[in-house]
From TrEMBL:
Sequence segments annotated as region (Disordered): 373-394
Descriptive protein name: S41 family peptidase
InterPro entries, per database record: ClpP/crotonase-like_dom_sf, CtpA/B_N, PDZ, PDZ_6, PDZ_sf, Peptidase_S41A, Tail-specific_protease
Signal peptide start and end residues: 1-27
rRNA processing among keywords: no
Pfam family of the protein (one): PDZ_6
Family: Belongs to the peptidase S41A family.
Amino acid sequence: MSITLPRSLLSGLTALALATLPLQAPAADDLPLEEIQTFAEVFERIKRAYVEEVDDATLLRNAMSGMLGELDPHSAYLDEEAFRSLQESTQGEFGGIGIEVGLENGQLTVIAPIDDTPAARAGLQPRDAILRIGDTATEGMSLQEAVNLMRGEPGTPLELTLLRRGEETPRTVTLTREIIRTESVRSDLLEPGYGYLRISQFQSRTGEQVEAALSELEAAGPLDGLVLDLRNNPGGVLQAAVAVADAFLEEGLIVYTEGRLPNSELRFNATPRQHAAEVPLVVLINGGSASAAEIVAGALQDQRRAVVMGTESFGKGSVQQIMPLGNGEGLKLTTALYYTPSGRSIQAQGIDPDVEVARGRLELAEGSRQLREADLEGHLGRRGETRQRSEAMSERLQEDYQLAEALNLLKALKVIGQRPAATG
């Protein structure tokens, strides 16, 4: 059998080329006749009675947005501007304030600020609730609407009203938009022999950049330990996460995905081309570590390649596919869940660290710092730049308690590894 939709509705559905909708005898995939009739009736009543005239294209786009937005917080209909904006983000350059946002219980929430951006410099933190963007309340706002409001011309101000967990009074911060050029990887030496590798998000070239950074660290001298910092990393490109984990693993499973469609079930395995093969590794995570960052942490944890330290991660374990449409628009659709090598689903669970260390600042007790030879004016030995660098690094570790504890753990692992076995 078939039904014919009202002519007034058909005029609004020409983009879908629906003159009739065939309905066959009862089967699992039949279109629900009653719901289609209800949809047609709602469409017709909006067209006829809404306080302002609404064109058919707008109504259809709203219907598509609602259809995807009600599935989960990460599926979305992307108009041409939103689709272009998403492509810019994965390529690493866009105009805005530099935060990854999500919906938590319907509330627009900061997932993570991106390193060295207005949001990071203003002190925004994971799970800060965004109550207003400028003069616009965020209640009921979609993720794409929020992104569109926050992005804009460099040099223009943006006011956010935030509510931090554990606080009762909202705070207002004013940021200045700028071109966000996100270099996703940076590296440094914490001390001679102890490397630091920071990944702020996973972009299409992150895997290559990690390999180059590791080669540079190894060229400076043998490594006794390495800290991989994934804190406040909101995720990004799945293949980049696989490439980063592969840089530290010689064999074994990295991640696998499961979904309804056969092509959504994928398995990614390590290849024997790792860097820093025997170097002890500590991975830092926190509540802003999400998605691809959790893939890397979970793989290295399950394969016993690294000690994971910090606090519980965000818990986004779903995979989104970006599907271009013929008109320059697109869909971002959740098609699978990913699992760590041991079969853990991270969705709404997160990664639990092996060693829990809360965010904090190290303060030395009064009188604990004693005069040393190196403090005496004109002392023999290393001077100048090396001394200044050492002082700067000490201050950095004092400000970042989690990083300091990661370095301490690596030093302890080196001591244990060098200690000779007892003989009887």
